[in-house]
Design a protein that fits this description.
12 helices; alpha/beta; four-stranded antiparallel sheet
Length: 335
């Protein structure tokens, strides 16, 4: 059986119930009076008011350079949680017939899952008789994508999210393929306005905290530190922080954690995905990873945790993700 592999990239798992953790210390070095309750990222998306009517057929450009003609969009299969989130938020969630394992929001919960880990079976997708498949350019292998195309199903590839600048183009790509470009414009405006509102509240009168993004999967003994291209840099910079991994010279998207790399990164705080933190036994287990306890973040047990399925999606809920990161870094109401 051929399988489509969606790699955790740029957004490690395009990305996926929030259990946020924070110590009571500000990253600027001064203790907070009390630990602030992190801003929660809602486990449901907020669709636009009203349901748009797709105007089809349309021919749109796929990120792989192909021209894709979409004649119907009644049975949609998005192969990433991020793309599912966009379709639902555009108001067309009732047309989605399956979900990727990283689609963790409430409205998608009852849909059949066509992935195991991050492998998507081409046969499983085709069995649902979709009239449109949305995928990332990192979805593969190529022959499996071709298998779906050869069955006559339009496949639109979208570039994976790498930062805040990708929010608008990804929404526009999906909305265009669904024949609702005006809804895409409205959603882009709403999302960017909300992100801008959160950024206005980011403290600027202190030394910027250094934050290292760690990708953890304790059950598989996977311990990685993000560098340039991990997908976290844009989010951290928007939160008024410095990406400690990229700032320390890590050129690859992810590098195996070593004590030397952590000491060089010298993070004041550590950003992790919730499931990853849980997989190593929480903060107690995290500080046992070689090198973590020797960092300022490890010494102060300063950890920022956001749910896997939404952290690096760079989509309609990114304002909530950013707000949560800011709250955890500085405490509620810090300026």
């Amino acid at each position: 059986m051929r399988r489509l592999r969606t790699r955790p990239a740029g957004a490690l798992v395009p990305l996926l119930a929030l259990a946020l953790a924070l110590t009571a210390t500000a990253c600027g070095g001064s203790p907070q009076a009390a630990a602030a309750k992190p801003a929660a990222v809602a486990d449901r998306v907020e669709p636009l008011a009203g349901t748009p009517s797709p105007k089809l057929p349309v021919t749109v450009a796929s990120a792989d350079g192909r021209q894709v003609t979409v004649r119907q969009a009644r049975r949609i299969v998005p192969l990433s949680g991020s793309l599912s989130e966009i379709v639902f938020t555009l108001g067309l969630g009732d047309r989605v017939v399956a979900r990727d394992i990283t689609a963790t929001f409430r409205q998608a919960a009852k849909l059949p899952v066509v992935t195991r880990n991050h492998d998507v079976s081409a046969e499983s997708v085709l069995s649902l008789e979709p009239d449109l498949v949305l995928a990332e350019t990192t979805t593969g292998p190529a022959e499996a994508v071709d298998q779906i195309r050869e069955a006559g199903v339009p496949v639109l590839l979208v570039r994976p999210a790498r930062g805040l600048d990708d929010v608008g183009p990804r929404i526009a790509a999906v909305a265009g393929a669904l024949g609702v470009p005006a809804a895409g414009t409205e959603l882009t405006r709403r999302t960017e306005d909300r992100i801008a509102a959160v950024r206005k509240g980011v403290p600027h009168e202190r030394t910027k905290p250094r934050v290292a993004f760690l990708y953890l999967r304790g059950s598989a003994s996977v311990y990685l530190i993000g560098g340039k291209g991990s997908g976290a840099t844009s989010l951290l910079e928007a939160a008024g922080a410095v990406d400690a991994g990229a700032g320390s010279g890590l050129a690859k998207d992810f590098t195996a954690i070593t004590a030397e790399a952590l000491v060089k990164a010298a993070p004041d705080a550590i950003l992790v995905m919730t499931k990853g933190l849980r997989s190593v036994g929480g903060i107690d287990g995290l500080v046992k990873i070689p090198g973590v306890a020797q960092t300022p973040a490890g010494m102060d047990r300063r950890v920022v945790s956001v749910e896997d399925g939404v952290l690096l999606n760079y989509g309609p809920r990114t304002d909530q993700v950013l707000e949560s990161v800011v709250t955890q870094l500085y405490g509620a109401g810090a300026k």
